[in-house]
Amino acid sequence: MDFNATLIGEMLSFAILIWFCVQFIWPHINKAIEDRQIKIAEGLNAAERAHAELKDADHKVAAEIKVARQQASEIIDKVQQ
C-alpha cells in the first residue's frame, strides 16, 4: 500500500470530522440522552407512586365494604326480628 497524499488527505478529513463531532454534535446528543433518562426515571417513579396509591385505595375499599356488610347484616337482623 502506498502512503500518498490521498491517504494523508483522507486521514486529515476524518480527523477533522471526528473533532467537529466531538466538539459540536456529541454534547447535544449526550444532553438529549440525559434528558430522556431523567424523563424515564420520573415516569417510573410516578408509576410506582400510582401503584402504591392504588394498593392503598384497594385496602380502603375493602375496609369500607367490610363495614357496609356489617351494617347490612345488622339491618337485616333488625328487620327479621
Notes on the protein architecture:
The longest helix is centred in the middle third of the chain and has 76 residues, at 5-80. The model has no long low-confidence stretch (mean pLDDT 93). It contains one helix and no strands. The protein is mainly alpha-helical and 81 residues long.
Strand content: under 5%
Radius of gyration, whole Å: 34 Å
- What coarse outline follows from CA principal-axis ratios? rod-shaped
How does the helix and strand content classify structurally?
Answer: mainly alpha
The averaged pLDDT comes out at 93
Q: Main sheet?
A: none
Helix share bin: over 70%
Poorly predicted sequence stretches spanning 5 or more consecutive residues? none
Q: What is the count of β-strands?
A: 0
**With helices defined by DSSP (H or I, 4 residues minimum), what is the helix count?**
1
N-to-C CA distance: 109 Å
SSE map:
Blueprint: H1 5-80
Short synopsis of the structure:
This protein is mainly α. It is built from one helix and no strands. The radius of gyration is 34 Å and the shape is rod-shaped.
Question: Keywords, please?
Answer:
single chain; 1 helix; 81 residues; 0% strand; mainly alpha; rod-shaped
